[in-house]
Amino acid sequence: MAFLSFVGRVLFVSVFILSAWQEFNEFGVDGGPAAKALRPKINVFSKHVSSRTGVKLPVFEMKHLVSATIALKGVGSLFLIFGSSLGAYLLLLHQAVVIPILYDFYNYDADRKEYALLFVKFTQNLALLGALLFFIGMKNSIPRRTARKKAPKQKTG
Predict the structure, then answer these.
(1) Inter-residue contact 39 to 62 (CB < 8 Å)
(2) Do residues 68 and 35 touch, judged by C-beta distance below 8 A?
(3) Which of 66, 82, 144, 152 would be a feasible disulfide site paired with 31, CB 3.0-4.6 Å?
(4) For the segment 47-85, what is each residue's pLDDT rounded down to a tens digit?
């Protein structure tokens, strides 16, 4: 059973590892295509947050954000492969921050093509988020084994 659990974790994190690897290879000096695609999404998200809350989000380099996502996905995946809850929490943080920004279906009308594409991607990533929550819940519900000390043998003699 432990082997099947390990294989399942490897297959699950392959999504994160492969995307981190692709972003790392395309990174370049400016953050690559991921940074170029992320800039307009961040601008829309920033305006949306500012209009709703009155709080202005800080300005930052896109390459720093892309490198942070690469690090979260890479380190979180490695930890999760070996069964650490820390890896699940790192990937959970990544998903919670990235999903509403990248898959902003709520900014489109329901009859547009972009809405359907973004909504499907949004729900797929919500499923990944749910699987991470499931892993954390199962990890916390399994009692840890405690080493039992054997009673010392009585010396007779």
Answers:
(1) yes
(2) no
(3) 66
(4) 888 998 998 888 888 999 999 999 999 999 999 999 899
